[in-house]
Amino acid sequence: MLTSLRAWKETLDELGVMGIVPEPPTKISPTAPTSLNVPFPIPQTANAPDSRTRLMPRTKETHVWEAPSDPVKNPPLQAVENCDTLDALHSCICQCEACPLGADRIKFVFGEGSPTARMMFVGEGPGRDEDIQGRPFVGRAGALLDKMIASIEMRRDEVYIANVVKCRPPDNRTPTPVESQTCLRYLKRQIELIQPTVLVGLGATPLRELIGIAAGITKIRGSWHIVSVAGREIPFMPTLHPAYVLRQYTKEVRKAVWEDLLAAKKKIESE
Ligand code: SF4
């Protein structure tokens, strides 16, 4: 009897099924983090199998993400602030993995445009095309952004285009507040170096991260706000993201965006 029980357990183990004999519980450290105080999942090995799960197939363990201590993968704020050109900033941060988005990117998307642009656009984060090419706004939304810029008689190479996060969020989801805030120090240094006269926020994420407003972009768009970067106050115009305009391609939506961009252009002309 004992022999057949042992053989059955060995067979279940080979198939990756937890045995009927309960495994000894893994000790949980009294200082172990809980789901309430860490932003990322805790590995399942921290918990002993219970009677409901012991016959379930083993699943792949989820790893706790930790910010790297390597200064190349997680550049210290002082190193970022010491960068006195966009090229120096790019070199300093292009291997960043300071938030979970870094590990899965294809290409780092720094931003591009005139280093002395008076109008700077800030989007949410790279999408699939941007991740492949390493450039911001190059897909369908990018083509529409180019048209939006042309509609106010400006050129793409006259403005600067960047995003709140420089690596693509999986499945194009919204970056989490932790990811956005980790990357924001780079965007702020970029703004500091470019010194634009106006910032145009594309969509809800730059509005949330730069202004701290979580209200719907459709309600807030078209109204001036102020972003304070390194002691300098910069007018900020929130407008709709080109991807939203593509989904809601109505005359009213396009007119609303055009009016927002026109207001931004008037602002730089009046300064
Ligand atoms: S999104 Fe920003 S903070 Fe996160 S890994 Fe990429 S560059 Fe670093």
**Biggest beta sheet summary:** 6 strands, mixed
Sum up the overall morphology in one term. globular
- CATH homologous superfamily name? Uracil-DNA glycosylase-like domain
Strand content: 5-15%
Separation, N- and C-terminal Cα atoms: 90 Å
Helix percent reads 25-40%
Number of strands: 6
Mean pLDDT: 84
* Helix run count: 10
Spatial sequence of strands, sheet with the most strands: 1-3-2-4-6-5
Which structural class do you get from the secondary structure elements? Answer: alpha/beta
One letter per element, helices H and strands E, the order comes to: HHHEEHHEHEHHEEHH
C-alpha Rg, in Å?
Answer: 24 Å
Bound compounds, each kind once, are:
iron/sulfur cluster
Tally the structural domains.
Answer: 1
Description:
This protein has 271 residues and is α/β, with parallel strands linked by helices. It has a single domain, classed as Uracil-DNA Glycosylase, subunit E, CATH 3.40.470.10. 37% of the residues lie in helices and 11% in strands. The protein is built from 10 helices and 6 strands; from the N terminus they run αααββααβαβααββαα. It has a 6-stranded mixed beta sheet. A hairpin with a 2-residue loop joins β5 and β6. The chain is globular, with a radius of gyration of 24 Å. It starts with a helix and ends with a helix. About 18% of the residues have low confidence. Bound molecules: iron/sulfur cluster. Iron/sulfur cluster binds next to α6.
